[in-house]
Specification:
Helices cover about 10% and strands about 60% of the residues. With about 70 residues, the protein is mostly beta strands. The protein is globular, with a radius of gyration of 11 Å.
Length: about 70
């Protein structure tokens, strides 16, 4: 993970993406205007729906050139 930045705000689940090769869910997220995705086979993919519409602190980095969720806490 490269270029990690902090994001603070309301998390919104924009849409569910196609599952990973191993069948784990993936999501596109928005945190106060910053759009990112969950990385394939990340455990955060199972938690993001619980944080939908809530104020969160997150870090977002680039994973293979795609802005991706690195950490998440309420």
């Amino acid at each position: 993970m490269k270029s990690i930045t902090a994001a603070i705000g309301i998390l919104t689940v924009v849409k569910q993406l196609p599952s990973s090769i191993n069948g784990n869910p993936r999501f596109q997220l928005d945190i106060d205007g910053l759009t990112c995705v969950t990385t394939p086979d990340s455990s955060y993919a199972y938690e993001v729906e619980n944080f939908n519409g809530k104020f969160v602190r997150a870090t977002i980095g680039t994973h293979y050139g795609v802005p991706s969720l690195n950490s998440l806490e309420q």
